[in-house]
Amino acid sequence: MFTRLFATLVALACGLFFFAFAPSVSAQSSANLGLFEGQSDVGVLLHPSNFAYDEAQQTYTISASGENVWFDKDNFHFVWMKVSGDGYFQADISFLGKGVNPHRKALLMVRPSLDPDSPYADIALHGNGMTALQFRDEKGGLTHEVQAALWSPKHIRIEKHGDYFTMWLAGDDGEFHFAGGSPRISLGESFYVGLGMCSHEKDLVETAVFSNVKVSAMPGANWSNATLYSALEEITVNSTDRTAVYQTQGRIEAPNWSRDASFLLFNRNGKIERMPAAGGASQIIDTSFATNCNNDHGISPDGKDLVVSDQSQGDHKSRVYLLPLAGGTPRLITKDGPSYWHGWSPDGKTLAFVGERNGDFDIYTISTQGGAEKQLTTAKGLDDGPEYSPDGKYIYFNSVRSGHMQIWRMNADGSEQTQITHGEWNDWFPHLSPDGTQMVFLSFPKEVEGHPENKDVMLRLMSLKDGNITVLARLFGGQGTINVPSWSPDGTKIAFVSYALIPKP
Length: 505
Hints:
The protein is an all-beta fold and 505 residues long. Helix content is 0%, strand content 49%.
């Protein structure tokens, strides 16, 4: 549980355990810190910081300079306590004055040390109202963030369940809602929790006021009794900035981007839904009898048609169907099942899919008019995730034929099958950028078989020019995260789904 660490406290009847604690030499003393134990400048601050606790109003006011809380080092003023275990930390935040930099930050921070390059997780309210779950998952690493769809929230809360951190925000209704993110960060047995302020200008002091501050313990994480939440995210490839544009309790999967970039598709409970790309309410697309659609769906190159893989009919094996993108009655394409769509040729005439035939899963193609299917792979073991290159010359896919799952490429007719990735990770679902220069794919740890749900995974990006691979995002995901094509039409963003498990009380 989130537990205060005072030398003078003793164990309560409920059995909580309290550790002795002495402030570090870097801590600045104060006559009254309210809930907190110490305060410190973290990193380099060129101007004196100031902290004031108003006992009557129960407010905490922090004035500080600081160049940034970002990249591989932090510069901010921190008012803190030490705690252990699981719990939540919440507050209401307001800034004083108009401010100079729109990215001045007021922080609810959790970190294992006061080192400027320490791992951490925080919720940062920016001066312009943008709110984000920021995190550095290793000492000296770069900071990442998941931006919330809700700006200027009324109330802010960060939760810790085991090693996972989630962001919860409340708007005008006053109710906290899951707002995205579930990074995994190991903080050790005890760690710092506190309030922070950074002006984002090394030569300027700015001020934030924190009210309704609460630190509360929660039971240790029981993952067998947890509620699943989904966040549909967009990641900007060049910056790796992430924005959670839609969040919901339960499972959604496999976003597609519309050809005009105005909306996204995803599947939920057997239905296909669409929502504005910038966030907002979703609407179910009428797919008639196809009421058990899985996460293998997509939009035609001309933006007129929708392909779904549905298993609601007959023997309940997945088959591929086409229907108008606006909705309508699906037309059967693959007569045999199970069949799972994954790729559409650039000329709109051919579909690539995975089919299980005679006990083996292989890659096939078929005309959008139906008819005979053409088998392209014959290797033993699973071949999956076929997707055409934008020029139509190649099909990329993942295959376990080398001993574990890797990305492969073949000519569109199935010839010259060549391995593309060679690492120890299990790589799935290659998706090519619209200009054909980059490939994003999903990587599972080497010990994970298949592509199960609820795993720590990575989105990785390969330059097809030189084969260089970088990590776009680490997240809690897996099945449903990025099964189908999800690049934005301009090639600047990728849509995916991350998940969070929240143990029930």
